[in-house]
C-alpha cells in the first residue's frame, strides 16, 4: 500500500531561483525530510497536508513534493523519484478507520480532508471487502477527533471516521468506537 511518493513536477524553479520543495508535516514523513529543515541554499521548503501538496504541485507552486500516490498519476509530466515514498506492507497506525458497528452496516463515513490515497483506499475497502456503499463526507480531522471524543454535534450521523497522519497516530481509543488499521486491511485484502 502506498501513501505518498516523491514527485518532481515543474522543472523550473521559482522566480527567485529557489527550488521549491513540499513535505508532509507528519511523523511518518520525518525520515524522508530529515535534514531539509526550513530552507537551504538554493531551495525553499514548505510543509502541508498531502492533499494540499498535490494541489500546489498541480498549480506549479512547488517543483518537488511528497504527494499522495493517487495524485502522482494526475499528470504525465510528473516524474516519480525512485526509492522515496511512504508505503507499507501491513499495519501502519497512521491510517485509522473508526466505526460504531460492523463495517458492512456503515451508512456515512467522514473522510479526512488531508487525504487522497487513504480516502480512495477507504472507498475501495467498503465496496470490495465490506460490501457496503456508504455516503462519504469530507471532514476536517480536528472536528472528527472532537466528534469521536463526544463533541462536534455538526458531524452527528457519521458512523465511521477516517483519520490519517498524526491525527491517527495520536488517536487512541474512543468510547463506543471500534477501530481498524487500513494498512492491515489493505494487506489482508490484496
Report on the structure:
InterPro entries: Menaquinone_biosynth, MqnA. GO terms for molecular function: lyase activity. One of its GO terms (biological process) is menaquinone biosynthetic process. Pfam families: VitK2_biosynth. This is SsuA/THI5-like domain-containing protein. This protein is of the alpha/beta class. It has 2 domains: 2-87, 3-Layer(aba) Sandwich (D-Maltodextrin-Binding Protein, domain 2); 95-189, Periplasmic binding protein-like II (D-Maltodextrin-Binding Protein, domain 2, 3-Layer(aba) Sandwich), CATH 3.40.190.10. 25% of the residues lie in helices and 31% in strands. It is built from 6 helices and 11 strands. The protein has helices at 30-33, 50-58, 117-129, 141-148, 165-169, 182-189, and strands at 2-8, 19-24, 39-40, 43-48, 64-68, 79-87, 95-99, 108-112, 135-139, 160-164, 178-181. The chain has a 6-stranded mixed beta sheet. It has a 5-stranded mixed beta sheet with strand order 9-8-10-7-11, with helices on both faces. Helix 3 (117-129) packs across helix 6 (182-189). It is elongated, with a radius of gyration of 17 Å. It starts with a strand and ends with a helix. The model has no long low-confidence stretch (mean pLDDT 87).
